[in-house]
Amino acid sequence: MKFFIDTANLDQIREAQDMGILDGVTTNPSLMAKEGITGEANIRKHYLDICKIVDGDVSAEVISTDYEGMVREGDLLADLHENIVVKIPMTKDGVKALRYFSDKGIKTNCTLIFSPGQALLAAKAGATYMSPFVGRLDDISSDGIELINQIRLIYDNYGYQTQILAASVRHTMHIIQCAEIGADVITAPLSAIAGLLKHPLTDSGLAQFLADHAKSQAKG
Ligand code: E4P
Q1: Quick check: 219 pLDDT over 90?
Q2: For this structure, is 92 an active site residue?
């Protein structure tokens, strides 16, 4: 399973990259705004800065909602760097744009997926990745993880190559459940990824090993 970090924060991206486990980055307009990145030129430069840190796919989302705008924006984004993945919302124009980029050999990530039917359309349109939002479904008393299950079953039934990129992943259990189901990718904040490190028996076991080592050195 590939690990993407879901942020536009360069320090956090560097930290995950330094761990040696990072396969890519996802961003969205809200994450870019959170970092105070405004204006087309700055936004493009920021994507390039991310691409310099991570040798993996970097999702850059279009702002346009009409087909022509998505295509114009997506072409410009894709020209920035070979690792840029054009992120497109799940709408009728979005599906059309997915097909356009797929036919051109440009990688895409279909975002804002909340149902198996939308997942089916993203695969039919040739999306490279599709992003079901696990946490946002949980937020409204729906079962986000069950959606990942349903999509895995559907894609396996027909051998669709579109990768399931579980998004809106909020905590470690989401990551583990996605891995059990066989999601191709998870994208999560650094806190959720780092949370996988934690186990009290690791901490106490290490403390004991170090204490025993120190004792034996003192005797020697
Ligand atoms: C990823 O592609 C999405 O933009 C992101 O995971 C959304 O996460 P959120 O629901 O925590 O905002």
Answers
A1: no
A2: no
